[in-house]
Specification:
The chain is mainly alpha-helical. The chain is built from 13 helices and no strands.
């Protein structure tokens, strides 16, 4: 595709076309839930497993919901054990993740309180994510659990220059509020969010002549967010869902 300069008219046109479409996306699996505790708990799980082929992601998340009997908060709090694998995560990895979340819920009552507790200690968003990552590692160490490849893949820190794409996706769902995102975490402002940077946004950055990087990193994610914030400084991630699905459709069209 030829490079063109991004402007608000283009952004708003993409937003209008894709924002209200029920496209294949993990958020719609989370939206099957109504109880706030279930939404936050499952959104965290869903975001961490949102990698790979989108159809496989949806299939796996829907199977999890059924295993939880559509009550992920009480299921995980009650130390549910599942016979499931997902790509890099073994059965043991998945049950370890649930055990860590169960530990958090029992200590803080829910994930919202846990995030608020972590947020109060932090000056920047990367500090929040890094603090949660360190807490995760500490839990594994305290319980003599080996940091397997699958467990290592689930969480990371911006201090390693990871985009933390899936953690940023979870925060988008929890902080922004519209007919897609839930707006449950009111202690974080939408303007503080960083784009869940992945290959689709790299494609968009190059297509619209925003950035010239080929590899998603935390630095790139922040620069991309800053570029989009020129068009909406209060809510730059407003365009995330639309931009990603616009790129998916264009890739399918051009490769079809």
């Amino acid at each position: 595709m030829n490079l063109i300069n991004l402007n608000k008219n283009i952004l708003d046109k993409i937003y209008k076309e894709y924002h209200n479409n029920l496209l294949l996306d993990p958020v719609w699996v989370v939206r099957k839930l109504k109880n706030k505790e279930d939404i936050v708990t499952f959104a965290f799980v869903a975001a961490l497993f949102s990698y790979g082929n989108i159809k496989n992601i949806i299939k796996f998340l829907e199977s999890l919901l059924k295993d939880f009997n559509y009550q992920p908060y009480f299921s995980i709090k009650g130390n549910i054990l599942l016979n499931k694998k997902y790509r890099f995560q073994s059965q043991e990895d998945i049950n370890t993740l649930f055990a860590w979340i169960s530990y958090i819920i029992k200590k803080y009552s829910n994930l919202e309180n846990y995030y608020f507790y972590q947020y109060k200690k932090c000056a920047y968003l990367e500090d929040l994510v890094d603090s949660i990552y360190k807490d995760y590692l500490h839990y594994l160490e305290e319980n003599n659990i080996k940091l397997s490849h699958g467990l290592k893949f689930l969480l990371n820190t911006p201090l390693n220059n990871s985009t933390n794409k899936r953690m940023m996706l979870f925060l988008r769902w929890m902080v922004r509020k519209d007919d897609i995102d839930f707006g449950i975490f009111d202690f974080i402002k939408p303007c503080q969010l960083v784009y869940p940077m992945d290959v689709h946004l790299i494609n968009i950055a190059k297509h619209f002549n925003i950035l010239k990087f080929n590899t998603p990193t935390w630095k790139v994610a922040k620069e991309f967010t800053k570029a989009i914030a020129k068009f909406d400084k209060d809510d730059p991630l407003k365009y995330d869902y639309s931009l990603c699905h616009w790129d998916i459709k264009n890739r399918e069209f051009n490769n079809g």
